[in-house]
Amino acid sequence: MQNNIGIFMCGCGTNIKDMVNMDEITAYAKSRPGVGLILVNDFYCNIDGKNLIKETIRKEKLTHVIVVGCSPKTHLATFEKCCEEGGLNAYYLQMVNAREQVTWVTEGKQNSTEKIKSLINGAVNRVVVQEALEKKQIDCNTDVVIIGGGIAGIEAAILIGQAGDRNVYIIEKEPSLGGNIVKYDEVFPNMECAPCMVAPRLSELSSLEKVKVITSAEVQDIVGYFGNYSIKVKQNAKYVDEQKCIGCQACFEVCPATYSSKFDENMRDKKAIDILFPGSVPNCAFIVKEKCLRFNGQDCTLCKDSCPFDALKYDDTDKETVVNAGAIIVATGSELYDIAKAAQYGYKRIDNVYTTLEFERIIAQTGPTDGQLVLKSGDTPKSVAVIHCAGSKNKDHLPYCSGICCLNALKASKIIKHRIPDVKVTELYVDLTLPGKQHHDFYEGIKHEGVDFVQLKNSAAVSIDQENANIPIDPNDPAGIKIKVTYTDIHGKTDTISVDMVVLSPGLVPAQSTRNIQEMLKLPIDKNGFLSEDNMKLNEVSSTIEGIFIAGTAQYPKDISATVSQALASCGKVFSKLVPGKKLDVEVMVSQIDQDLCAGCKVCIALCPYKAINFNEDTKKSELIDVLCQGCGTCVAACPSGAAKSLHFTDKQIFEEIKGVLA
Amino acid sequence: MSDEFEPKIIAFVCNWCSYGGADSAGNSRLKYNSGVKLVRVMCSGRIDPQFVLEAYKNGADGVLVLGCHPGDCHYQNGNYKALKRAILMEKMLDQFGIEKDRFVLDWVAASEGQKFAAVVNQAYDNVKALGPLNIRALATSGKELVNE
Q1: Which B residues in the span 100-119 are in contact with A, Cβ-Cβ below 8 Å?
Q2: CA A317, CA A528: separation in Å to the nearest integer?
Q3: Domain membership flag for residue A537
Q4: Same domain, A29 and A79
Q5: What are A382-392's pLDDT values in tens digits?
Q6: Residue B47 with chain A: CB contacts under 8 Å
Q7: Do A299 and A323 belong to one domain?
Q8: Could you give the CA distance from residue A177 to residue A169 in angstroms, rounded to a whole number?
Q9: What is the pLDDT of residues B12-54, one digit of tens each?
């Protein structure tokens, strides 16, 4: 079919019309090969202008359209729609930016006229080699997998589960949901009891029919792409039937074996048949195989004998299942930096030096001391040092600020002061990072409760040691002073204080499970090891891979409110992109790899930021997964055999444009 | 028309940052020479070294490659790939006898109308001082620079 290009020359009021020699442009444009007509109008973006384009396409049977006017950034979508409504494929359109990039930036009418002429020539050259592209849609699975059963995963599962329009699977490595938040007794800034806050949420989650809870489970492999992921999950045997056990604890009492509870930061031994915490979901006991007598050669059946529900399953086995879902929310979280790596803090070396998380377990009703804030000796501490930035803002440990540890440290002081009114508490800090609603007020409140504040020279300017003979023991203090804290303050003055207990507030690092998922999905990470987001400001809930969303501290340290906000936002992305009954729109301007030309060199695979290219081991060629491709074209520029092609930005189209504008 | 040399400059710009930067220059009515013409691609990472050579071959006296600032790429890191290619490009152009100032790689954000105008004006002035690209005589005498 012969080309019949229609050029719609917009005057844009006076913006273009008065700045150029319109007759010269129209005469030139009309003379270009394939151009059937050129129409000048004051505006094409208003209703009359748009109708004129649509009608002209139909009436004149145009094969291609060029709109000469404003920037495509302003009106490309407008004119694409005109083409479609006029019955022409939108990819047969080209725009010439005659306003922002000519009349507004050029001195002299003649210069503008000449430049527009050459840009029209480029557009005419290019448009005739453009190809019709069809908007593509694929079938998709709208179910969601959430990896990580902390507060982010719980809230995301509830929100999606409440919609009730799809299945949502929540996969947790521990035997029950809750994550880190349930280890905390009270949380800042309103000192709400964390387990009390989470309990009704867990009960809500359990009531939702479409929420499937998979615990004691690890993700082994993830294959697929946005809309169609398969997640292989290994569920470790609990040796207790989740359908029968109600968590009555009858078996705990009779169990003769014990294990060191990681949930309690290894500060106490619990029975080898256990529940992480009262009110766990699922509220089902699990056997710690490594410590259970039965699994270590003895013929013990005490738990089975004591169970009123016949829930014990000694022959239970690990199970592998495959879950299919369209989207994955990674909510695998973070953990405290191992502050034992910074020897100066004496952690694990000196008694009564704790992290903020261990402190939480000590004060928790369900913790190793049943909520008694006491020293290892059982005595009540008379003096406590709370140390901020333990290992943080320190190039040898964590170079960054985790943002939440200041509040955590201040909260520790508040709790200590409330439990033991005459205790002496000293906060050693570097800077106070107190963003967020009520956070500064929280600090102001503590200042007035008689806590001493000492500003350190830097985060490394503190060291902790065992008490020695140089400091006389207070005869009025029978427990004796155990720990000395030596520091250099902001003025350069070095001093030592003696305390009974030290609470260290270290920063957060990505949890092991975050690192595992990151490796499995090859997700990009930032320089501190946290998952990279699609856009730090506009889209921190999406990873760089379509259909993989991030919620919570796997992305960066953040507090509970920010974690939950991100979790809920990730659901918004899921709801908007994966709609039951609808197909999934995929990017049209993607790359293509010609299988006949591909030499299998894999250069494109290394360059693709979206993991959108797979190597087919059978054919030894690279294959594009077009639902993942975002159309950047980097693979095309790099392909040494010319096998990769960028739709709507092909080499040929660009070459034609170059020739045209330079003619 | 005077006989004075008027350079032809092609600027390859990414859709998200630098094309927007050029639009910003327009919105602020900042002037630059009309010999500077833009070719839009989605990402500076899409810019094949062949595009640059094709521009010289077809009469460009200077070529710019403009992308998002490092860290701002819409496609994560396409601009780093453009940077790596540009380093090789410069070595190759030198071997072709194409002067250093005829090729520019820079970063222009969508808000940086001022920077866009400054970068293209500087490139224009530099190329004007160099005069027309002599290598064109070679290309048009049958010795093709690029095999399509």
Answers
A1: 117
A2: 38
A3: yes
A4: yes
A5: 999 999 999 99
A6: 637
A7: no
A8: 12
A9: 999 999 999 999 999 999 999 999 999 999 999 999 999 999 9
Is B80 touching A (CB cutoff 8 A)? Answer: no
Query: How many domains, in total, are found in chain B?
Result: 1
Q: Domain range for residue A456?
A: 336-509
Identify the segments of chain B with pLDDT beneath 70: 1-2, 136-148
Q: Which residues contact A295 (CB under 8 A, 6 or more apart)?
A: A287, A289
Query: A269-299: per-residue pLDDT in tens?
Result: 999 999 999 889 999 999 999 999 999 999 9
C-alpha B92/C-alpha A208 separation (Å) is 64
A539 strand-pairing partners:
A535
Report whether A10 contacts A67 (CB < 8 A): yes
Q: How many domains does chain A have?
A: 5
> Are A230 and A180 part of one and the same domain?
yes
pLDDT value of residue A585: 84
Contact of A604 with A637, CB cutoff 8 Å = no
Instruction: State yes or no: pLDDT of A211 exceeds 70.
Output: yes
Listed residues A581, A608, A624: the one ending a domain: A581
Q: Which residues contact B143 (CB under 8 A, 6 or more apart)?
A: none
Contact A148, A333 (CB under 8 A): yes
The token pair that represents A21 in the structure block = 């020699």
Looking at the structure, do residues A474 and A358 belong to the same domain, yes or no? yes
* Contact (CB<8Å) B34/A651: no
Based on the fold, state whether residues A246 and A322 are members of the same structural domain: no
Q: Is A24 exposed, middle or buried (0-12, 13-18, 19+ CB in 10 A)?
A: middle
CA dist., res. A552 & res. A561, Å (int): 10
Q: Quick one: pLDDT at residue B148?
A: 42
Q: Give a yes or no: residue A368 inside a domain.
A: yes
Determine the distance in angstroms separating the CA of B22 from the nearest CA of chain A, rounded to an integer. 7
Whose tokens are 């509870």? That residue is A261
In chain A, the percentage of residues whose pLDDT exceeds 70 is 98
